[in-house]
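3.2 Worked example (two chains)
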Amino acid sequence: MTLIRSLPENATLADLRGADPELFEKLRPYGHQLMRGPSPLTPGERELIAAYVSGVNSCRFCHGTHSRAAQAFGVPEETIRTLLDDIEFAPVPDRMKPILRFVRKLTETPSRMTAADAAAVYDAGWPEQALIHAIAVCAYFNNMNRLVEGAGIVGTAEHYAAGAERLVAEGYLMGPESISHRAK
């Protein structure tokens, strides 16, 4: 159900990037630095935040892809599956729960963030830089979710698996179209 007329019926994120490469390619270096660069949050924790925010937004494409990427970084499938139902009972380390509560609130009601929301993250032992990175991951995926959903990109389980495999192996700089060009 693609909403952009020039995109094919079963469009992917690569198809959307191709619709305006100059605009969309600028997101890759930032995404790569954010998701794979130095951070108090591990790549698995950042992928978990990405999957969680995308799940809160009901973005099937990003939730499907980043759930699989988080699993590849060691986050159990059960954690991701149960997290959206109830953070408190999900098998997530207690230290991550305040961050996940923070990004959920930031996603759903950003104007209602309070000092208490940040204090809960600090009280769990996270440094300020971790909160900054969690906010940035949340913001990036809220943006990506709206790009994907706004264009009507849904994907398939095969797309999600291939995307996650690429993200784990290559990071955020290389897209499926770049890898195929490199192989030629």
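3.2.1 Second chain
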Amino acid sequence: MKIWFATLLLLAIAAAGCASKSNARLREQNAYLAGQNSVLLQHQAQTDADSPGVTIVGPVQHPHVPWVTGLTLAQAITTANYVGPDRPKQIILTRKGESAAMDANVILNGQDIPLEIGDTIELR
């Protein structure tokens, strides 16, 4: 009876060791994958920041709008996907360090402005 109990105890200890090794291996794999994911996200953010386009400041889902030839203010705001509770009242366009404030109703009702690479648009 003692030999059977000792054998059972050894098997239980061995199984616990296997489970611990398995858990440790799983934690290592998860940590590795989390690190890889972090590097990929950093690379994607850097690529977005380095790519030419315009920046939209305000309640939008996509603050970086990639550059396309002929991009206009209305197109950029639409591409950025404005999510504010109300229509913006003022739009500030900054180009090469100079800013111009505009009534948003004028822009949103048909008068459009061509943009240049590097422009920043602030929606208020």
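3.3 Remarks
The chain has a mean pLDDT of 81.
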